[in-house]
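=== Structure Prediction Worksheet ===
Name of assembly: unnamed complex
Input type: mixed (protein and possibly other molecules)
Chain count: two
Listed entries:
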Amino acid sequence: MEPSCCWHKEQIGPEECPFIRDANADLLLNRKNRVLQYCLECPRFMEDVRRLRKDPDSLAEILPYLMEDLQELRIRNRLLNGQVEVRNREIKFLHEVSLVLQTSMDVDEVIAMALTAVTAGEGFGLNRAILLLVDKERQNLKGHFAVGPRRREDAARIWKELEEKNHSLRELAQTFFEMKMSAEKARFQDLLEKLSVPLSRSNHLFVRTLNEQKSSHVQDLYMEPDIDPGQVEALEVHEMILVPLISRNRRIGLLMADNIINGQPITTDDLHSLETFALPVSFAIERAALYERLQEELTKLTDANRRLKEQQEIILRMEKMALVGKITSNIAHSIRNPLTIIGGFARTLIKNTPPDDSKRHYIESIIGEAKRLEEVLQEVLNYSESLHPTFDLWDVNQLITGVYVALQDDFERNGMECRLDLDSTLPPVRLDYKKMTYCLRSIINNSLEAMPRGGTLEIRTLRSDDELLILLSDSGPGMGPETIKGITSPFFSTKDIGSGLGLSLCARILEGHGAGFTIRSTEGRGSTFQISLKLSMEEEQHGPLAGSGR
Amino acid sequence: MARLLVVDDEREIRRLYADELEDQGYEVETAGTGAEAAQLLENREFDLVVLDIQMRGESGLQILQNIIQERKEMPVILCTAFGSYKEDFSSWLADAYVVKSSDLTELKQEIRRLLEKRK
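=== Predicted Assembly ===
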């Protein structure tokens, strides 16, 4: 049989095969490759095969079997290649995402990356992603963040924007984090608020999914009984997947995704991919949150340390000043007495000296010079007192801690347990620290004496509107109204020991400070002493972090 | 005639005060220590005490506390060599403070004021 085409030739010319182009001209010289690539699909070759099959001895009869099988294998091969390519892209994408997740210590950045990854075409390509986070303090699963178009009009705009910019995933997340995060949060605020659920509602779809640590694929939210109708309405979508975020068995949150805009069905593959993705996201969120807390604690500690140092310096300076003051005072005291005597007797003397007595001039001179010396002395003393003013801006907590430390032996001796509960955010208050210290000691002493067989004393500081409150509560026997009334008037005491002057003096000191002093007590139930100090504008400006005293 | 007690550890000061106050028409007794003062107070009635805040070996404030504890109505004037009375709040219990000076005008005024107040 004469072949109708060129398939039997080892080499052919370019005019012999209509399929071979210049680009693969090497096939003209390679028969094997030429046959496999072109001849098998060439109608003239097929015609020759048909003709050959008429010859009963020809092997050509089995050729169609082989060709058919080859075609099938080729198709499957192409399919697999396609899948491999997709998986490759996915791995590359996951690698890129996980790099960001691993290196970021910022919760918001992690979240921006994760949600961008879920919604980016390059990533999972879902339309919208919503993140709920566990708020441990409020025992709430709280709507935290969402990414994606809110409405169809939004979608067109956002997708067009993305297409034009052609950013990599990392760039996308970065831009999003830096420029749009807060705006996006505000955009979804109402939805996020509606989606929050108390963790106690264990039957609720969200909480249940989180607690069971198993993702769920809801085909129709409108038919789902365990979700609030208001939430379904807000979500405006039928199909949705929910993936719990768990890190070392701790519940971090819930990742939800849907195709709200294009309505494309969500595949099992989508769900599986998202599940795989949820793991690093959970870790990253938890780690970043921990890091943030660590940073906060570190800042607090650094700050406390700085304040401590400042205080130490102040104390050191004050100690030095106090020493200077003490020396000056001692000198003054030893000069003052003789001066008083000299000047005093001179004055006595002059009274009995007649006006025309020649000694009078000398006595007047003694009186005048003694007076001058006294004035100099007074100046020196005033100066040494001004070196360490006691009326200044002071940190009330520090004052209390100081008193507490000084009285620790007494607490132990009396078997009294003293607890401090101090609000560290209080601003400093203008007061006389020595007088205030005296007041606190008086009140504590009163409690100590009222509880000879031990008990508890709790000292609290807190802020209430424009007042700073110091509350001292003891577990003593308490007092009746008459006793309370009397206790703040001078010389009153129900105690056998102690003068009973302490609290009346306290009331006077606090009155001088323009501070309130109230005692609440029930017999048999202990007493609470409350000191309320007014905060002024000046103190507000200092803020909680300002140092005390200067 | 009002009877005053002057407590000061400095003999010449006691003499000066006694001379000057007697000159004003008061009956004056003096004590150099807290113990002496306590003894005098126990044996006789006084209308007012003039007390030095800083004395050798003991604190005027302690004496003040003892006096007040037992005789709540009796006025006490604290004499100080300097402003340090502010440092101890027990001193706040005194009825008046006078800075020690060779010029006794202020002391005399305070004595007059307190005695008149008592009447």
